[in-house]
Fold this protein.
Amino acid sequence: MASFTTELIPERFHAAVVDWQGKNFPEMHFLTDSWEKYFRGQTPFQLTARIGTAAPIAELGQFAGQAKFEKAGDMTGNMFYSAKDIIRAQCSTEFGSIQQHRLTLEGAFSDQAKYDTLRIMGEELRHAYQMFWVLAHDPSWKKLGMGDVAQETMEELLSMQTGSHVLDAFNIVFNEFADNVIFAAVIDLVGKYQLEMQRVFTYAPMARSMAPMLSEEAFHITSGRRNFKEVALRAARGEYAGGLAQVQKVLNQWYPRGLEMFGSESGGATVMQFGFKDKTNAASQGEYMQEVKEMVVEPINLALIQQKLPGTTLDKAKEILWQVEEEKDYPAGLTPKDLLHVPAASFFRKRGLPEMAFQPYDAEGRLMTEGGKPLSPKAYQAYLQTVLPAKYLASEEFAKYCREADAHFGGKGW
Ligand SMILES: [Fe+2]
Ligand SMILES: [Fe+2]
C-alpha cells in the first residue's frame, strides 16, 4: 500500500545519476540480484523519485497559513538560496555516504550485515535521485540573472568526493566495518531528525519528498543499531581487531560530527522563519543526544553486561547499568572498559558554540588544563591521539582539524 507516486527525472539527469552509480557504486547489482534472498517480501529497490503527501498550507514561520510554494522561482532572495543550500547539503550526504560505505563493505561480519549496508547505499542513491527530482522537475530554479541554479547544483554534486562534501561527517574516510555500522546508527539518525523537521518545508516538492525518505531511513537506523550491537559484542569477545576499545574510538570519531550536523547550537531561527524546519538546532540536537544514549548505546551496554556476566537477567543488567551511570559503581567482574560511553557534547568539537569549538574538553566533558590554563592545541591533540582511531588520526580530515584549531587560536595557543 504505497502512499506515494513515482516519477523519473529528465533523461540526461537520470543518465548522469546512473553514470555516477557505475563509478561510485558498481556493487549495486549484488543488491538487486539478491534482494529476495536478504529482504524477502519487501518492495524491491527501484531508482525513482517517490512523491508522498504533505500539508499544502505552511504550518509555521512568516508564511504560516498561506499556500506552500510550488515553484522555487516564487521564493525570493535569501529564501531561494537557503532552500537550494538545504537541498544541496541533503543530496551531498546521500552521495557522500555511498562513497564512504563502499570502502569497507568487505569487512562485514556476515553476509546479512553486508547486504544491509548495500541496501542502505542503494536507498541513499535513491535519496540523491529524489533531491535531483526536487531540482530537475521545477524549471523555475532557473532564474533571470541567477543562472540555472538546478543544473549548476546537480553538476557540482556529481563531482563531489570524500573530502569535498558539504558536511564534515561525509569527508571522513571509512577504515573498518565499525565505521559502517556506527555511521548508520549515529549519523543516519541525524538524517532522520533533519527529514522529520523538513516535513513542514514551505517549498512543497521538498515537503512531499520527506515521508518516503523517512520510511527508508527507519531501516538504516534499525539495521545500524542491530549491527553496531553485534560488532560491539564480538569486539568484547576478542573477535574484532582492537576490541571494544577500538569500537569506542570509532564512536568518539563520529559522535561530535553528528552533533555538528544540526548546525550551531545558537542557530536555526532564520530557517524556521522561512518555514523550512520546525525546530531550532539546539532543540533537535538535544532530542538526538538523548536518543543516542537511550536507544543506541544503552541497549548495547545491557547486552555487553549480559555477555560479560553470564546468567544476568535483563532487569538485573538494567539495575547494574543504572548503578554504573548514576553512582559510578561497578560490580565485581565489570570495569568501565567493558562498556561503551557516549562522549560529552563538548568533546572534540570544531563547530558550534564558541565555548566548545576547539576547546580542550576530554571525552567526559572536563576542560583539560595544565598549570591552571586550558591545554594548548598541541597538548590537546596529544590527548586526542589516545581516544580516536589511529587511521583517522593519520587522515587528511584530522590534519585539517589540527590546522583549523591552530588558526582558531591565531597559531599562539590559548
Ligand atoms: Fe538518505
Ligand atoms: Fe540513511
